[in-house]
Design a protein that fits this description.
This protein is of the alpha/beta class. The chain is built from nine helices and ten strands.
């Protein structure tokens, strides 16, 4: 195979915005797509089948193959049901785009446990639930592609989004480990931080900026990461308005103490410790395999 032709791919949160564009592009390129969407509002309230059904119909009208799924990613049962929909409809599963998300923005001082839990359940647990259900299929067939939706709010922080940022950076931690554990099974796991005009961002950016950030610019990046040709794994990409860049962790040269340092010695050497002028990209070394 080449590209994504013939691949069976689940896209969560695909009833609108970025997820819709991902599903549409993948289907145009020959993938068989499960369009998952709970049909809720931006904050996760409500629900229904109309959004997922509409995208499936668009795909079919263009000659593509797709089925709808309305299960919630926020539960283990929902994750299993989403993957099973793909297996039942297309005979297996080759990829997961974990895109589903909600917002419950509030400053940290005013945040309650309900807002914290709701966002982590959909984003972080949602990614886990669907990918975990697909993982045995990937291992058995020695092929799998995973793309999770992270965010610059997780990478850099953003006022009022402690819950969202924590969940989004948690997904980066997830794909970093999946890349290590999946390497011998030809499973690649990557993250995309989209910058796009969607209902999730339409009141967070100036209107002029939003006009430059069509969500269709991000879809080709996701499509490539899901393809047979892509060998990237554990990469984090920021994409928006036609611009794509990779983000990575770098470590300073640091300072080696030959004894337990005093606070005064720590203070004396602090500038050396944090000096990034000779920084190099850091890579985790796997210590075990299973």
């Amino acid at each position: 195979m080449t590209g994504v032709a013939g691949r069976r791919i689940v896209v969560t949160g695909a009833g609108g915005g970025l997820g819709r564009d991902y599903a549409m592009l993948l289907a145009r390129e020959g993938a068989q797509v499960v369009v998952n969407d709970l049909g809720g509002a931006r904050d996760g309230s409500g629900g229904g089948s109309a959004m997922a059904d509409a995208v499936v119909q668009e795909i079919k009208d263009e000659g593509g193959e797709a089925v709808a799924n309305y299960d919630s990613v926020a539960t283990e049962e929902g994750g299993k049901a989403i993957v099973q929909t793909c297996v039942d409809a297309f005979g297996g599963i080759d990829g997961v785009v974990a895109n589903a998300g909600i917002l419950r923005d509030v400053s940290f001082g005013k945040m309650d446990s309900a807002a914290w839990d709701a966002v982590l359940q959909v984003h972080l647990y949602g990614g886990y639930n669907v990918i975990r259900a697909a993982w045995p299929h990937f291992r058995e067939q020695k092929y799998g592609r995973v793309v999770v939706a992270t965010s610059t709010s997780g990478i850099y922080g953003n006022f009022g989004q402690a819950n969202y940022g924590a969940a989004k950076l948690g997904l980066v931690g997830l794909i970093n480990t999946l890349a290590i554990e999946g390497a011998k099974y030809n499973i690649n796991a990557n993250a995309i931080a989209p910058i796009a005009a969607t209902r999730m961002t339409n009141d967070l950016m100036p209107e002029e900026r939003l006009k430059q950030l069509g969500s269709d610019h991000v879809a080709p990046v996701v499509g490539y990461l899901m393809s047979d040709e892509s060998t990237d794994t554990a990469s984090v990409l920021i994409a928006g308005g036609g611009f794509v860049q990779r983000v990575a962790y770098y470590a300073s040269k640091g300072h080696q103490f030959d004894h337990v340092a005093t606070l005064a010695e720590m203070a004396d050497n602090w500038d050396k410790i944090i000096d990034m002028s000779e920084a190099k990209e850091g890579k985790q070394v796997a210590t075990s395999q299973s």
